[in-house]
Amino acid sequence: MQKENQIIVDGLTFIPYLNCETIRTEVERVGKEIARDYEGKQPIFLCVLTGAFVFASDLIRATGLTDSKITFIRYKSYEGTSSSGSVKQITGLTDDISGRDVVIIEDIVDTGLTACRMIEDLKKQNPTSVKFATLLYKPESSQTGFVPDYVAFKIPPKFIIGYGLDLDGKARNLPDIYVIKEG
């Protein structure tokens, strides 16, 4: 349900936070950084499902790296509006990444627990390098000290939806990002 610039999902009210033009500008900036760093290489982009699929699609196009490959993995740590504190791999990597440059594409880094777990799991498969790109990074929420290599936006520790991010599977299709309304 939508009321003026508000969106209501599961009884929670969300207000606009980042519009699609702002998102596109920052995704293109990050894409250019990755293109510069991987010029002449053939990285494997590893999209973390389900939330990062929108960001990954736009980011990979923004890199212009035609010799790259994309594959998918799924980890889960969120339940409702907060991190559960436990990280579960739901869908595993099927591609051989030994001797390859890997760029993980994630929608959001909150506590850092999922990011650290993914990197630890991937390093066991002997890639040449592992870098981490995220649409959103919440440095104040970190429990690990993990800092992504590529960040489109640093944001405060608030719950958000849209542009691939969801509330129990809902609102991923919104072109803008919304933040939960306080008070």
Radius of gyration: 16 Å
- Uncertain segments: none
Structural class: alpha/beta
CATH fold topology:
Rossmann fold
Describe the largest sheet: 6 strands, mixed
Would you report the number of β strands? 11
Task: Quote the distance from N terminus to C terminus.
Answer: 19 Å
Please write the CATH class name. Alpha Beta
- What characteristic shape results from the CA principal axes? globular
Tell me which oligomeric state these chains represent.
Answer: single chain
Throw out a few tags for this protein:
183 residues; 5-stranded antiparallel β-sheet; alpha/beta
Provide an overview of this structure:
There is one protein chain. The protein is an alpha/beta fold and 183 residues long. The chain is built from three helices and eleven strands, in the order βββαβαβββαββββ. The protein has helices spanning 20-37, 53-63, 113-123; strands at 2-3, 6-9, 12-18, 44-49, 69-79, 82-91, 101-109, 129-137, 150-154, 160-161, 177-180. The chain has a six-stranded mixed beta sheet with strand order 6-5-4-7-8-9, with helices on both faces. A hairpin with a 2-residue loop joins strand 2 and strand 3. The mean pLDDT is 90.
Ordered list of secondary-structure elements with their pairings:
Blueprint: E1 2-3, E2 6-9, E3 12-18, H1 20-37, E4 44-49, H2 53-63, E5 69-79, E6 82-91, E7 101-109, H3 113-123, E8 129-137, E9 150-154, E10 160-161, E11 177-180
Helix pairs in contact: 1-2
